[in-house]
Amino acid sequence: MNAVTVKNKYPLPHIDILFDQLGGATVFSKIDLRSGYHQIKVREEDIPKTAFSTRYGLYEYLVMSFGLTNAPAFFMYLMNSVFMNELDKFVVVFIDDILVYSKNEKEHEEHLRIVLSRLREHKLYAKFSKCAFWLKEVAFLGHILSAKGVAVDPNKVEDVLNWKQPQTVTQIRSFLGLAGYYRRFIKDFSKIAKPMTALTQKNAKFAWSPKCEEAFGTLKKLLTSAPILAQPDITKPFDVYCDASGSGLGCVLMQEGRVIAYASCQLRKYEVNYPTHDLELLAVVYALKKWRHYLLGNTCHVYIDHKSLKYIFTQPELNMRQRRWLELIKDYDLEVHYHPGKANVVADALSHLVTQAEEQVKFIHSNLRRAQSRQKSYSDKRRRPLTFEDDDHVYLRVSPMKGVHRFGVKGKLAPRYVGPFKITEQCGPVAYRLELPPHLAAVHDVFHVSQLKKCLRVPEEVIDTSQIQIQPDLTYQEQPIKILDQKQRATRRRTINFYKVQWSNHSEEEATWEQEEFLRTKYPGFLPSTSN
């Protein structure tokens, strides 16, 4: 069922972004819904689509089942709709997990009353054993949230700490994937894990070395001592530390001496030629753009290791690039301070990380170009351009809607075409206008080339449009017309009747076996009535 379901593109929120709104919160409550998906009913006409067979009979889901491809996205949409007025104020929602946060206990009491009333109003039920109220520190989405900030949940990393030495490449990937969820808490995570990552590369020989053992132990140790990242408070000034090197920029956002976020980027080709003064100024501009949702409208102190930037606002002569950047900087309430390079260790390290990875990036680009060239040469040899001329005759593809189920096996019926129709003109490189008969006036007469087939005058591939009713969406309904044969299949509990049915617009060779129950339900009156 998931394979034929149109995917729901409703976005799921990023966990890191959800935590940004918790600044200043001191009281927390966590609510977990009881079997969340099962609280949503399936639309009446879609219930038969969820049918599944067991040895006790055929069953259908009346509520949304776990495992459906669109279940998380639809449930996220439902929860956002329920708490639309409370989101980003005192409620965080991630699928079926609800977090209520407040600055003090008095506010929290009112917030809890509002949230619980919303759940009662929409008949959503929580599992009390998984709920926790009036907490100073709460475990939520694999993190520990408190007034101090965000930390790693020790219970979640317990599996990592108890992980035995990997014996296969698959086990290494599993370990790195689990530990990598908390990589933003570990400085130089990629550098530490490099010996283990090398074993996961293609055609790499698996050989557990002392370096791998050291990296394995170091990651475990760092997870137990991961730092707490502070939550931003927009009512207080921010500190931004910036640095630039010959190949990258590095910035750190801090508040009251605590790190809030890190950022770094690689220089573009034309930026490599900038003088040092302009590179340092570019790092400031990059930081302001990166964290403008924090800094715009708030006071911030920018620390750089280039003394001349302190006087950027009073310099009499500026080039066009500097003037453009200065216009952007003037939108912010900031003060520039000189910070010696030796003291600016964190941002300096970030700016030089790009240099260390430059060779790997070049190697990746080379492999991508080589793979692209190989794929292009392979495709060009086998691609046949599909073009038509004016006055050519083509068949138009249509989609039958019969809904026949054949025990999980696809039908043998080939795609059908209507026509032929005459091409009147070409509309762009991949579209053509057709001369349609009057009974297809409701259908738009311009079609993509993929919907057309050159007329080769093969009668058995063509459906006469006068015998079927074409819908505006180019579909038609097939009907059973004749019973060719009958058989029975005995199970432990009952006997099932099957009929070999010939369908409209198809020959007897294309007949299919269908269950009696399906035919009586879908096409009442087709089978003769039976006396009880």
From TrEMBL:
Keywords: Endonuclease, Hydrolase, Membrane, Nuclease, Nucleotidyltransferase, Protease, RNA-directed DNA polymerase, Transferase, Transmembrane, Transmembrane helix
SUPFAM superfamilies with a match to the protein in the record: Chromo domain-like, DNA/RNA polymerases
GO BP terms: proteolysis
Coiled coil spans: none
Domain Reverse transcriptase as annotated: residue spans: 1-145
GO molecular function: endonuclease activity; peptidase activity; RNA-directed DNA polymerase activity
Spans traversing the lipid bilayer: 58-79
Name recorded for this polypeptide: Reverse transcriptase domain-containing protein
